[in-house]
Write a structure and sequence with these properties.
125 residues, alpha+beta, Arc Repressor Mutant, subunit A, two-stranded antiparallel ribbon, 4 helices, 51% helix, elongated
Length: 125
């Protein structure tokens, strides 16, 4: 049995600033050099991916994505070093939180002296 945890960052007004969706979009932009291709890889439309970028631009002081309009070699998108730093730091935070949550879940719910949640056996197995 596992516990699932979602991690995101909000500002003081409870606006979603950063989370796994934006991280994924940024990573694919970095990989492909294209917002459109990043959106396809994530399984969202271009407008939604662009909305993620606009939210980042609105709430984060540093430039994270540089989108150059044009055709062919003159077009494309790149990430700033700050964007890469935020991605890396967020992923460390997310990993640490999930690891702690699983450990604590096992301590509280699945310890050897008590098993608070017992799952029924699958009758179709």
């Amino acid at each position: 049995m596992d516990i699932k945890v979602k991690v995101w960052i909000e500002d003081n007004d409870r606006n979603l600033i950063f989370g796994s969706g934006k991280t994924e979009v940024l990573k694919y932009i970095d990989e492909t050099g294209s917002i459109s291709q990043a959106a396809q890889k994530v399984g969202m439309n271009y407008k939604k991916a662009w909305t993620h970028i606009k939210i980042l631009q609105k709430h984060i002081e540093d430039d994270l994505v540089f989108a150059q309009k044009g055709r062919g070699e003159n077009s494309g998108s790149t990430l700033s070093p700050k964007a890469r730093e935020i991605i890396q730091t967020y992923e460390i935070l997310e990993y640490d939180i999930k690891k702690y949550a699983q450990k604590r879940f096992e301590e509280l719910f699945l310890s050897s002296d008590k098993e608070i949640i017992k799952v029924k056996a699958d009758k179709n197995a």
